[in-house]
Design goal:
Blueprint: E1 3-10, H1 23-26, H2 41-48, H3 60-71, H4 74-77, E2 81-87, E3 92-95, H5 105-118, E4 121-123, E5 126-132, H6 136-141, E6 147-157, E7 173-178, H7 187-190, E8 196-198, H8 206-220
Parallel strand pairs: 1-2, 1-7, 6-7, 6-8
Antiparallel strand pairs: 2-3, 3-5, 4-5
Bound molecules: S-adenosylmethionine (SAM).
């Protein structure tokens, strides 16, 4: 079984109705351009100030960088990675390992707007992005007897990566990484596992953590 990576509470959503009339939003919004429909703190900062939970929202760039790191990895190329994102609005999407995510940020936002609107991305009859209907717990229940690791700077520090993935390749390991910039996991997330692990004395960016965990897993299982 592959390593299962879930990026959780990603700041990825369509611009919410309550701020669609704000001047900072209207300036960039066009119904013809998919990318303009995505909430982005870099463009909509002033409009976002009064949004609930705003520090975790409007950061599609974080998801973009994490996806590029994960999908470009050897682990993915060898068919040993299962990748999901969970958004701040509790939508869950699975990424086909064969998808080639746009390197260009605007094109990526366009793809994600289409995903959030249509639910799935299908090309030549193949699903490249598929919506998972259900909650995170339902997704986790799909995997037999998994070890669930919540990666957090507040977790127990594991200094040596060799102590991180001790189980055989056949074990289902679910690595949960926050796809947000500030704050910590929600209560719902913290209820998923008591196994909170830190991989550094520093709080790292989500895409660095994604890269490190995947690399550690590759090294632990001799996947190059
Ligand atoms: C930018 S951090 C979120 C901010 C939060 N202060 C933190 O450090 O957890 C994004 C995600 O990266 C992961 N992360 C950051 N630093 C980490 C560390 N030292 N060990 C393990 N995971 C870490 C966590 O999953 C976190 O939710």
């Amino acid at each position: 079984m592959p390593l299962i990576v879930i990026l959780v509470e990603c700041g990825m959503e369509l611009i919410p109705k309550e701020i669609r009339k704000h001047s900072a939003v209207r300036k960039n919004l066009s119904s013809q351009i998919y990318a303009s429909q995505i909430l982005d703190n870099a463009l909509h900062h002033s409009a976002m100030k009064n949004l609930k939970n705003s520090e975790k929202r409007g950061r599609p760039d974080i998801t973009h960088l994490c996806l590029l790191n994960a999908l470009g990895s050897t682990l993915n190329k060898t068919g040993n990675l299962s990748l999901f994102i969970h958004t701040i609005n509790n939508k869950i999407y699975e990424f086909n390992p064969e998808i080639r995510i746009a390197r260009n940020y605007n094109r990526f936002k366009g793809l994600m707007a289409k995903t959030l609107i249509d639910g799935n991305i299908k090309v030549n009859g193949k699903h490249l992005i598929s919506q998972f209907e259900g909650k995170l717990q339902d997704l986790i229940n799909k995997f037999k007897n998994p070890e669930i690791i919540l990666f957090s700077s507040r977790g127990k520090l594991v200094n040596d990566y060799k102590n991180l993935f001790l189980e055989a390749l056949s074990k289902n390991i679910i690595a949960i990484i926050g796809g947000f910039q500030k704050n910590t996991f929600s209560e719902e997330l913290l209820r998923l596992s008591n196994n909170l692990i830190s991989i550094s004395e520093y709080s790292l960016d989500a895409w660095i953590v994604t890269n490190k965990i995947i690399t550690y897993y590759e090294l632990s299982h001799n996947i190059q």
